[in-house]
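Lab notebook page, bench 4
Experiment: in silico fold of construct C2
Operator: M.H.
Input chain length: 171 residues
Purpose: comparison with the prior construct
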Amino acid sequence: MTSPEAHDVEASLRAAGLRVTDTRRAVFSALHGAAHIAAEPLFDRVRESLPGTSKQSVYNALGDFVEAGIARRIEPAGQAGLYELRVGDNHHHLVCTQCGRVEDVDCVTGAAPCLHPSDTRGFAVHTAEVTFWGVCARCAAPPRLGGGVARLRRRRGVVSSGRCGRLGAGT
């Protein structure tokens, strides 16, 4: 008997015209639990539920998902490609220039594409991708240095500024 979640995964894969395989099921499930994730940490998650899978099969599944339109790959400058399941709408991304955190932001100016070039130069524009770059609230906040945990982290070299995460870790 399959769980309702497994049924949703299988239904999503079939609706996209993809054959249901253990690898695709595991990759889709792992993507479902992550907003923006690079292939390497996704592979680590997939191996937890499907230990025998290969890195190449995870990359193949991701490529199939993007091609079928059920996943999206974004490529913030200076980071590995990140994958997400939020597709079919006109959202953009906020990227922290200090920690690499990525957040979705809805388009604020209307229907897709929300930006129109002054000259299309013969292109039939169907998508506009916008990335907003800045510093997230956690990185912008002054570091808290008074507590015991902060002191321990400083001694171990874990936190020396207000940074909130690892570059490319996503959210």
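Observations: The longest helix spans residues 55-68. The longest strand covers residues 91-96.
Next step: discuss at group meeting.
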